[in-house]
Specification:
It is built from four helices and six strands; from the N terminus they run H-E-H-E-H-E-E-E-E-H. The chain is α+β, with helices and mostly antiparallel strands and 119 residues long. The strands form two sheets. The chain has a four-stranded mixed beta sheet, sandwiched between helices.
Length: 119
């Protein structure tokens, strides 16, 4: 669902859905890293791109570890995603693919597509 400014509206996740997504993310490697440059627009665009492709990603804080909680919330807000969890220096983000045919994760059943299972 699009909101007035053209961005996608995030669906609020239930606790059971967050738990399910954290379990799915367990075997994933981080795809984006927060380094010395912090939260640049280039970094945020790479997170948006990763979410569009994977739906569920991990972001690792290599630097700025003290700011990870606040910055994780900011990343979620700026990328229209949900912060699923923050474990140590790794944040887990989820954004549902708006196109049902391209969707890899179904929260109702916890089903992942065969492509997602191979990752």
């Amino acid at each position: 669902m699009r909101v007035g400014d053209g961005r996608w509206a995030m669906k609020e996740l239930k606790g059971s859905e967050r738990k399910q997504l954290r379990g799915m993310a367990h075997g994933l490697e981080p795809v984006c890293y927060v380094g010395k440059n912090g939260l640049t627009e280039v970094f945020l665009e790479s997170v948006r791109s990763a979410l569009a492709h994977h739906e569920l990603i991990k972001v690792k804080f290599v630097e700025w570890k003290e700011e990870r909680k606040e910055w994780s919330e900011r990343i979620a807000a700026e990328t229209d995603s949900n912060l699923v969890g923050l474990i140590g220096n790794i944040a887990i983000f989820y954004r549902e693919q708006p196109d049902e045919e391209r969707r890899k994760i179904s929260l109702e059943s916890g089903v992942r597509s065969p492509e997602e299972e191979q990752r």
